[in-house]
Amino acid sequence: MGGFLVSAYALQHPSHVAHLILADPWGFPEHHLPSNKTLQLPAWVKAVSTVLRPFNPLAGLRAAGPLGPRLVEKVRPDIQRKYEHIIKKPEIISNYIYHCNAQMPSGEGAFKAMTTQFGWARHPMVNRIPDLHKGVPMTFVYGSRSWIDKQPGIHVQRLREDSDVDIEILDGAGHHVYADRADLFNDIVSGICRSVDNIENDGHLPARKQTWLAGEAQGCIDLEDEKSIPASMELSFVLPVLQVS
């Protein structure tokens, strides 16, 4: 969900974003079904879906109380295994995940409000992100084994030919690219941060950049009329925009 949220933020506040990094982002593709086919679900699936619809996704975890950490270990043992090589007590991970989700479910409520049936985005980002200001470079980082569809990233890259859009696919990584291939992920992010720092240290803002920022600060910028800003230049406020969930 993080990649979806930071994309929405970048659309509203492009001058606050130095580089948009999207780590295996959810919420980009549209929910399409072939026009000549209808998805037929078993009756029991429809019944369970109807019963669970009023509840947040992790309501069962909170209801488990002190058994919650053990439930996390049973349901998602893969997450704990990701950190076994660096943490002496792997059970710390399940405890951490449980306590992160045992509080007020504000994040789950937001996710539920943004989704339609079966976890698809209500307002897919692939239809919105092409409006992102051309001066904001983007990098999609996908896992080769992830369930996330990579086609929206390729589609965005084609639509934004006059802007910087890179796509990185990390071999062997699933959805949690930052954990599955931490070495490669950190190299990519560090490289982007260094490039932003190098531009920032130059200390020179093009005249058009100054005009653009001044206009936005006054609330009168018109991104539709604004011509392209060089994608290589630094934007004034550097904000980390990494998807971490």
Automatic annotation (TrEMBL):
Protein name, UniProt field: Abhydrolase domain-containing protein
GO biological process terms held by the UniProt record: lipid homeostasis; phosphatidic acid biosynthetic process
Keyword Flavoprotein in record: no
Any one GO molecular-function label of the UniProt entry: lysophosphatidic acid acyltransferase activity
Protein family per UniProt: Belongs to the peptidase S33 family. ABHD4/ABHD5 subfamily.
Gene Ontology CC terms, in alphabetical order: lipid droplet; mitochondrion
UniProtKB keywords: Hydrolase
Superkingdom of the organism of origin: Eukaryota
PANTHER family in the cross-refs: PUMMELIG, ISOFORM A, RE40534P-RELATED
